[in-house]
Design brief:
Elements (H helix, E strand, L loop, with lengths): L1 H30 L13 H10 L9 E3 L7 E4 L7 E5 L2 E6 L9 H14 L3 E5 L3 E5 L3 E8 L5 E8 H15 L10 E11 L2 E10 L8 E10 L5 E7 L12 H7 L7 H5 L6
Parallel strand pairs: 3-9
Antiparallel strand pairs: 1-4, 2-3, 4-8, 5-6, 6-7, 7-8, 9-10, 10-11, 11-12
Length: 275
């Protein structure tokens, strides 16, 4: 009798142990972090634009499609870690333009549809406004711009994050060479360069905020380097309209930029006649 009782108790303990082990296994399985569903990530800028074009919801019916050549369509981009935007030539872009002024476009709908497409392909939102939005993944940064009125337009442009970082590296170097503008007040930068006869010139056009309650001011900052030497800050000018209709190119400024050592490069960037 005692032996039977021991057998029963031993069997109960064995079953209980098995149940505990099973429970622990189930607990581990059901509490394991769930793997995210895979997304069809796209890497080259062109692949991102292809994904947009394949989404028919993005393509407005009755709008004309155009594809700018690589490097000919500048797009304004801003990394989250930077205080100002830069203009970078797109590596891939597509533009949809209304056939007439009566065709309309729903900005909110286009931006929402764009976000769904980009996020489906591994991008995350990286800033937005009423008529624009940015999306980024590990190697590509894209921007969507929508103009709802006055010949409605939707543009999609993508560029590698390397190209964006390179643009920031150059502009930060150039801005650091001048003392006319506090860099902290700069909100947008456009960089243009030109080379001729061993001289490279750079024109950095900035949007600058003098103070919280003051209007934005445009400034042109000119730089040059010879035969691969380091950049030199040359001069600057507030952007203004002149009697000849060339912004920021006053006679005094042109005379300074036309110094023979710069081989006409800076005058060319300012909109002069040289080169």
């Amino acid at each position: 009798m005692r032996r039977s009782k021991k057998i029963v108790i031993g069997g109960f303990i064995a079953l209980f142990s098995v149940a505990v082990v099973v429970a622990v296994i189930l607990l581990i399985v059901f509490n394991r972090p769930q793997e995210a569903m895979p997304v069809a990530s796209v890497e080259p800028p062109a692949a991102a634009i292809n994904a947009i074009e394949e989404a028919s919801v993005i393509s407005p019916e009755g709008f004309t499609r155009s594809v700018p050549a690589e490097g000919t369509y500048g797009t304004t981009l801003q990394l989250a870690s930077k205080q100002y935007s830069v203009e970078v030539p797109s590596e891939a872009a597509v533009v949809y333009t209304a056939g007439n002024d009566t065709q309309e476009m729903n900005s909110a709908a286009v931006l929402q549809a764009s976000q769904e497409v980009f996020m489906k392909h591994g991008f995350t939102a990286n800033g937005s406004g009423e008529s624009w939005a940015q999306f980024i993944n590990q190697s590509v940064l894209c921007r969507v711009d929508v103009q709802a009125e006055a010949r409605a337009t939707a543009s999609f442009a993508c560029v590698s994050t390397k190209a964006v970082n390179d643009e920031y590296a150059v502009t930060e170097e150039l801005l650091g060479l001048q003392t006319i503008l506090p860099v902290s007040g700069v909100s947008a930068v456009q960089l243009r360069t030109h080379e001729a006869g061993g001289v490279t010139g750079a024109l950095v056009t900035t949007v600058y905020a003098p103070g919280d309650d003051e209007p934005l001011v445009g400034y042109q900052l000119f730089y040059a380097k010879q035969d691969g030497n380091e950049w030199r800050y040359i001069t600057s000018s507030e952007v203004q309209d002149t009697t000849d209709g060339k912004p920021g190119s006053t006679e005094a400024l042109r005379a300074e930029l036309n110094d023979p050592q710069w081989n006409g490069v800076l005058l060319y960037l300012a909109g002069g006649e040289a080169i």
